Amino acid sequence: MEGGGASGPILPFRQFVLKVHSRCDLACDHCYVYEHADQSWRGRPTTMSPETIALVAERIADHVRGHGLDEIHVVLHGGEPLLAGRDRLASVATELRRRLDGLCRLDLRIHTNGMLLDDRFLDVFAAHGITVGVSLDGDRAANDRHRRYADGRSSHARAVRAVELLRRRPELYAGLLCTIDVANDPIAVYEALLALRPPRVDFLLPHATWDAPPARPTPTAYADWLVKIYDRWVADGRPTTVRLFESIIRTTHGGASLTEAIGLQPSTLIVIETDGSYELVDSLKVAHEGAPVTGHHVATTSLDEVAAHPGVRARQQGLRGVSAGCRRCPLVRSCGGGLYPHRYRSGSFDNPSVYCADLFTLIGHVRATTMRAHTLPSADLDTIASGLGGAEEVERLATAQLSLRRALLAAVRRKAGQSTAWDLLTRLDREHGAALAAVLTHPYVRAWAVACLRGDAPAARLANIAAAAAVHARLDARLDVEAVGGEVHLPTIGVLEGAGEGPAALVIEDGRARLRDGGPRSLRPVLRLVSGGFSVVLEDADPYRDCHRWRPAGRLTGEQAARWQEAFEQAWQLIEKEYPSYVPAIEAGLTTIVPLLPAEEGREVSSAARDAFGAVAAALPSDPATLALLILHEFQHVKLGAVLDLLDLFDESDRRLFHAPWRDDPRPIEGLLQGTYAHLAVTDFWRVRRHAEPEPARRHFAHWRVQTAEAIETLAGSKALTPLGERFVAGMRHAIAPWLAEEVAEPAAAPGR
């Protein structure tokens, strides 16, 4: 197949599709394996042999070991994989787990049409930790439009029976896959699928190319079909995960797509056929005969060698890998040019998706409903690029962050299921919106939610957030909350001690929270730092604040808190006096400071975390001026992180590393952009400070202006920036230009040169 090469290190594979059987017991007329251009299935062995299975497991294990992967995903596929039989499927799972246990976590799944699924198969899957996805296109009328036996019989009843078996064993139920046909009633399809209580639904665009386009009664028929389902799904409270919709929402907010169908993240998937040959993504079979072929085999070729194949690299180019027209599109970060095979036209993949108009319409609709108030005007971007940004600009960023946290809570709710906490949250949202918003502005709500969705934190903390909002609203409630180390932390409220381990029963009455069992406990309120009319939380208790580069300090003593108060008051007075142009943005966006453990003697440490907008972390420095510098420096990261949640400033798939003058190790493009933007404020700090403290301020100013200017030019010449990124970097260059012209007395200027 045609592919684009790429330089740089290979990306390891993390997803493996094993074709354990090459035939099928249905004759679906939309199947990309049997009904499209590539007919290589005819020459494949029917079943993957034990010898091939062993080689596959060995190759995957070597790949995992060589790249230190902590998790991989393997899908048993076909044809129809159940035709391989229980024993063969059990042997595949046994061999994979034998090779991989102790090396990484194995997410093992099987995709089936369900015709043969029974309790004996499910017993095998339970024994080997295999979850099951079933293909079903909706109600009987929709499903039987394409999914029939060769003699024309319906497959619907057997598919539904398979799903009902899975519903009785929910730990094995992975979800449903539905191929779209716009001739079907979208709401009838949605309701039929939802009635089967799937944990996830994948709506799949039928595979097509420009040479063999899909049936399209109107220019955006597929978008119109999906929009009807999306609007109903939102109205229903998003009762299950719909991977396409979730991916659009995630990429809208700066996250990664959950599907290769959209988004710019590089593909890390490889297919292994029944004969042991490696193939590219098998949907390429719709393009032309031989399109997925790599020419490699498990018996002779390692996965690292396959990862260097130009066809693999072609699906890892990110923004550089899409057509010129796509690169100019404002929705490219979400769309990503669409599924790679759908771009094919007469020998070339350098085209938009054949579903371009549909994707544009659908993504635009989803974005309009999720980000209505969260655009960043170009004037705001220019102001922030200068290193500053006023209250209005940062308030817009904060509002977008609030919406993002609300979306994350909804995602956690789907993971946690129905709960008293969610019912309380919805009531608070309806009746006491300001109280809920006060809690959601706490930076580590997002840090916890992200960790929860990653599987690294419990969903139980949802109750702590609801409880804290109820306290603010003075709303009476009773609910079980998360206790960590015998304490119940209520964001923005404080800590209740004496809870023991496990869930704690909490009572909220008249705006006060207490533990239900064991009588009242005193609540240690949050600590606050105050200077004049400005106040921030001094967070030393949130169990999810440990998301910074440096370790957080433990609980502060009264003396330590007093030292922080004294230093903060003086630092903020210095900022107000000498750096007034930074004050409005910081007052609008900084809510929290987290004390860090000190590093080795003489080294200042500070941090900001992408998932904790509104917070900076620092070890208490020896003087207030240094604390002022650390606040200015880290708040730059806070602002830029929020901008990156809204706008694409660079190609996220660009894996190259760039020299940063202040570090020995090269940095990825985002790291260089973040560091350069932060050092714009560092340079300005010393530029101003040299008038009050000539040395070492003059020397630092001379040093940092040259290094920051050098980094700006590296960014400008990187070819990794989007047009908005180029505009942002041009704004930084414009800001530093007059500083480079300022005179600095020798010998301070010499180190800068």
Automatic annotation (TrEMBL):
Show the GO MF annotations. Answer: iron-sulfur cluster binding; metal ion binding; oxidoreductase activity
The answer on whether this UniProt entry bears the keyword Iron reads yes
Stored PANTHER family: ANAEROBIC SULFATASE-MATURATING ENZYME HOMOLOG ASLB-RELATED (PTHR43273), RADICAL SAM DOMAIN PROTEIN (PTHR43273:SF8)
Listed A to Z, the keywords are: Iron, Iron-sulfur, Metal-binding, S-adenosyl-L-methionine
Presence of keyword Nucleotidyltransferase: no
What is the name attached to this protein's record?
Answer: Radical SAM core domain-containing protein
Write down the SUPFAM superfamilies for this protein, in alphabetical order: Radical SAM enzymes
Please name the source species.
Microbispora rosea
Q: Radical SAM core domain: from which residue to which, for each copy? A: 10-250
